[in-house]
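Schema walk-through. Below, the input block comes first and the output block second. Nothing else is stored per chain. Lengths vary across the set, and this one has 315 residues.
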Amino acid sequence: MAATLSKGLPPNDDAYAYEFKWDGVRALTYVRGGEVCVQSRNLLDVTGQYPEVTGVAEKLDGRTAVLDGEIVALDAKGRPSFQRLQSRMHVGSSAEVRRRMAEVPVAYLVFDVLYLDGRSVMRLPYTERRALLEGLAIAGPAAQVPPTTVGNGRAVLEASKRTGLEGVMAKRLDSIYEAGKRSRAWLKVKHHRRQEFVIGGWTTGEGRRAGSIGALLLGYYDDGRFTYAGHVGTGFTDRMLDELRKEMEPLRRPDSPFDTPTPRLKNPTFVEPKLVGEVEFSEWTRDGTLRQPSFKGLREDKDPRQVVREEPPEQ
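--- output ---
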């Protein structure tokens, strides 16, 4: 179940529960007979990438469950950092996973339960699913059930801003879990504009980044057309630039992948639109490109063809 972007908090405040919006990767966790399978948002098995999550099986003590939550990596101030989580993605060998676990441990923040002890609970209202979740006692070194607050959304939103979080989730108290749907029963309210974009190429850098990536060329899909959305040249770490170059090299192509015009670009290198990145920005310009974008990291949990321009619907 996915949330709908909202311009602000819902007017009927008491009809919603509010949770912090966590800056990580979405994950479904299947637990049965002590065995665990962790799946990403696009249903890839990522159990081997995040072995810490398997600890929930011990807490469930033989029970069967399907949990929904967010895998996060915390920064020095205890806040989820998507950039820090990057080092745990795209890792192939188990030995490298173990090494990075020591450098960047992750935590699984569980916010919903979909199946429990032989029955689906997705059609129960949010309040009942939440009560079941809180009764599971899964809290441990690598898993937590974050708090939720009924009503008082403005205070929760202000607290999220004060602590440097991305925003809040507003979930209607009577909402069922609509698997595979983007529902208006769940709303996401962000402090800054932020969404996924598909990478269509790069331009070469100058100065310290001469010979490397200067900026990424970004796009999204609009009625099946790969639409140019501008470029992003800030927010990169050296490790991120190395990772991006490694991922993009095999995807090189001679012509532009965009179905819409692009401005005159200096020394562009185009790639097949296969990679998805997370970008924060201030607003859309009148000509349909991003203003003040900053790159946050690659995503491996989203199908590029599902990346569209996110706009909050009219209230």
